[in-house]
Amino acid sequence: MISPTSPKLKQVSTINSDIRSGRASSKSAASTASSSSLSNTRNNRSPNPPTKRYSTHDISSVPQSPEMSNEQVFDLMEKEQDKIVVKMTREISQLQEELKALRAQANSRSRRSSSISSNASLEIPRGEPHAAATIRRSSSSTHTHQVPQAQLHELAQENAALRHENEALKREIESLRAQLRNPVCIYSSSLPHYTTLAVDPPVPFPQWLTDFTGLSQWPGLDPPYVPLDFINFANVPAVPQHAQAQCATLFRDSCSFDCFNCISFDDVYTCPQLSQTFDDGPSPATIKLLDHLSSKSTFFTLGVNVVQYPSIYRQIVERGHIVGSHTWSHKFLPGLSNEEIVAQIEWSIWAMNATGGHIPKWFRPPYGGVDNRVRSILRQFGMQSVLWNFDTFDWKLLDPAYSRDEKEIYRDVTKFRQANNNQGLILEHDAVIRTVNIAIEVNKILGPSQLTVPQCVGGIDYIKRFN
Ligand SMILES: [Zn+2]
Fold first, then answer.
1. Among 102, 225, 260, 382, whose Cα sits 20 to 30 Å from the Cα of 415?
2. Which of the two residues, 167 and 245, has the higher pLDDT score?
3. How many other β-carbons are positioned within 10 Å of the β-carbon of residue 308?
4. Among residues 258, 266, 267, 279, which one is catalytic?
């Protein structure tokens, strides 16, 4: 969710010109051929595609106590979520305190050992278990003390244990921070009762996917790479892998959006009208957003959430919105190998196909992480990157490290609308109720005169639809 700040978008005269002129559709049609292996896979493996028409679910079909209204349920979700954020923040503070105490303890130990001899370095002779260790002054070796080796071993062991504990705590703090930043985890791990609220059981693993992959269940957060005959790694440029915000090894010709705000010819990053887009869902909070949106929008969904909340996903589509892919599990793609990138994309497509009966055309890279290597793979799938030219930074509200609040967001959105003459692609999130509430207010500010991403560029909604 972390995106480049203030995207100062590179002027490229050819940006989207072919898309706007309608060539995108023919291009899409051409790319459909390359990506049709996916479609064929489904068709070949499943000669009788499911004829079941999914009924429209609404919150009234959600199992809940009869005395609770929808609004009450949403309020409850909101309060629960706030409590979790507070709890996690407190846990982080506690862990930080613990870490501090451990550090102090470690320091006092090292002071104690160094008090044996100031400026001394410890040397434990190897291979001489009964020999005494020597503590030698660092300045010269003119003076030595003899210290029992058992004591030194004890100290060394204690230090190692403390270091180990320290590292474990650091990892725990990082993971809690990540959970705060990534609401997907908040939903899937901490709010099991929302899962029961979330309408129906996860989407079954389809037989055609078992036939193709040999697997029988949806993968975890690191999906396995399944080779596809239409993906040719020989055509993928050798852009070095890089971790998020580690741009030193990257050249400008990588056209990295996360490092250089670089936009390529087929990236979508703005719109002739306003266009709200929502990442990281579907989630139970998405239902509230659907109930309040006055315009058609584009939802970039995570495969793990699609299979977990299938009927919410279908509601998005049935209410006339467009769904695109946001990977399987929200990984920063430029940091992955080619095979891992393919796995993130293919599993998200399979999740959407199994749940909604379609193959997505539009792709939003998590954290804006896209460069020419990632694009090359995306194009082989027949997909295009969708970036943005206005980030609401709504996710910052979920991270206590930032002090952004709702008012700031509404003020920035209003300014953006005025400065950009009612044009632009806006980045928001629908994984938690707090950002959904913001999205509803932003929708009021921007009004109903909005376009979906394919409408923005005159492109197709999906590469293929099966029902
Ligand atoms: Zn995201």
1. 260
2. 245
3. 23
4. 279
**Burial code of 199-231, b = ≥16 C-beta within 10 A, e = fewer?**
beebbebbebbeebbeeeebbeeebebbebeeb
CA of 394 to the centre of ligand 1 (A): 11
Q: Which is catalytic among the residues 391, 429, 430, 461?
A: 429
Q: Which residue has the higher pLDDT, 195 or 367?
A: 367
279 assigned to active site? yes
Please answer whether residues 281 and 433 qualify as being in contact, where contact means their C-beta atoms are separated by less than 8 angstroms.
no
Spacing, Cα 51 to ligand 1 middle (Å): 32
| DSSP tag of 120 | E
Is the pLDDT at 205 greater than 80, yes or no? yes
d(Cα 217, Cα 208) in Å, to the nearest integer?
A: 12
Structure token pair of residue 258? 């996360």
Indicate if the pLDDT at residue 199 is higher than 70: no
Query: Looking at this protein, which amino acid is placed at residue 77?
Result: M
Angle 266-283-427 (CA atoms, 0-180°, nearest 5)? 35
SS3 54: coil
Confidence tier at 123 by pLDDT (50, 70, 90)? very low
pLDDT tens-digit map of 231-273: 999 999 999 999 999 999 999 999 999 999 999 999 999 999 9
> From ligand 1's centre to the CA of 299, what distance in Å?
11
3-state DSSP call for residue 390?
A: strand
Output phi, psi for 325, to 5 deg: -95, 145
> Amino acid identity, residue 10?
K
Ligand 1 mean position, distance from CA 142 (Å):
62
Q: Indicate the helix (H) or strand (E) that contains 137.
A: strand 133-137
Predicted confidence at residue 59, as pLDDT, reads 32
Distance from the alpha carbon of residue 399 to the mean position of ligand 1, in angstroms? 14
**pLDDT for residue 336 is more than 60:** yes
Q: Is the ipTM of this complex over 0.85?
A: yes
